[in-house]
Amino acid sequence: MTTCTMDPAGQLENLIAERVGPQRFKVWFKNATRFTFADDFVKVAVPNQFIGGWIESHFSETIQEVAEEITGRPMEVAFGIDAELARSLRKKQPDSQVDYVANNPERVARQHKRRGAPPTGPRLRGRFDDFVLGDSNRLAHSTARTVADEPSRQYNPLFIHGGCGLGKTHLLHAICNHLRDQRPELTCVCVTGEDFTNQFVYAVKSGERDSFRHRYRPVDVLVIDDIHFLANKRATQEEFLHTFNAVAGQGKQVVMASDAHPKLIGHLSESLVNRFVSGMVVKIDPPDRSLRVGILRQHAQRMHREIPEDVIEYVAERFSSNVRELNGVLLKLVALADVSNQAITPALAESAVRDLVQHTLPVLHLSNIEAIVSIYFGLAPADLHTSRKTRTIALARGIVMHMARKFTNMSYPEIGRHMGNKNHSTVILANRRIAKLVKEDGTARWMTPAGEKHAPIRRLMDELESQLGQTNGKATSAT
User: Fold this and answer.
1) Could you tell me the pTM of the whole model?
2) Which helix (H) or strand (E) holds 417?
3) Strands lying side by side in the sheet with 34-38
4) Domain end: 37, 54, 89, which one?
5) Fewer CB atoms inside 10 Å of the end CB: C or N, the chain?
6) What digits encode the pLDDT tens for the residues 2-36?
7) How far apart are CA 388 and CA 408, in angstroms?
8) pLDDT at 473
């Protein structure tokens, strides 16, 4: 067990810097995270969903290992949005994050070539028994459970989409865990779109394509999370198309998840889109109030804490975006009660989450808008925060700013601060430009690897707003 005179959060930060290296720490952690310990949990506060999602995917195990080393007991990692961190980000930090993401597949290939081994898949955490059901996720849960019980029989492929932190990955992991427990004779491979890309790049550079294909094509169940990561990657898309055809052609099961509907993933080949929508496409919506209450109760049980019902009701009433944020709010409340040696009461809850109620909800909503728009244009959410002004980025950034004014109560300065510390006048001009284009029923134009693409701005906006859940419709099925 590591001993040090500084507080646990400070120890955690220093040890993470040692483990991940100075470059990665500077890009992803410095000025972008804040750590808090509470019972058997460590909360990682982040400025937005993109940074939180990347850290969760790539560094959560490192954070967990270091936290357990410091405390000497098992720990779990929870993520939450902190609006203040969005203001403290350096203006150039999003630029470096975009560069890091763009170069990541090649970097990973070089690393693993030196190590002589391909990357491994994610740790499977979710199970059906600990998935809290509600109207917003019942259909997704039912189809996932059907696939887990009888792969390839009814929903093949199964494509689950929805915003960040709504339970897509949980269901994918639950399918794999169920199969490993109940059908161990079946081969189930679970991987993220990014890992599939990294492994393919490694296989190409190391001359091991046959080994790569043998890893994926003979499987009984292929599960791919964050499939939108394949956008804008032609060679990887072609390889995945052959992989999909090989698996499905043998009557085997394919399950995928994405933050967006297949038809709204930019720079994705028509062949892939057609195959993705050929089975069951189901959406997970944000949790309603009763589901939020159930999620908070479950999380309180996992923390082994007695949380009064009126406190749970208070938190559920004021936070509605996603599961991760609910858990992060509860963790902050418990940590505050422990530090101040106070009982958990509605008054303490109001004090603990006052700044989050005022700032986080709009920021979370803006993060959802960013995710949908960036996927549509084949960008990373961090692209929208950069100083870059290509035609595609400028259009996507303007649409996000316009939708933020339309669907949130954020002011122009708040939107600007969140999107890379832009000046409020930049937000005003972008909003006016998109509003004028919509009013005149103009055409939006942007660049893709295949050349210029264009679409009526009203139709484009309708598609994006529908994806955000501003219109009805929870699931579609196409044959």
Assistant:
1) 0.74
2) helix 412-418
3) 34-38, 41-46, 76-81
4) 89
5) C
6) 444 568 888 899 999 998 888 889 888 988 899 98
7) 25
8) 37
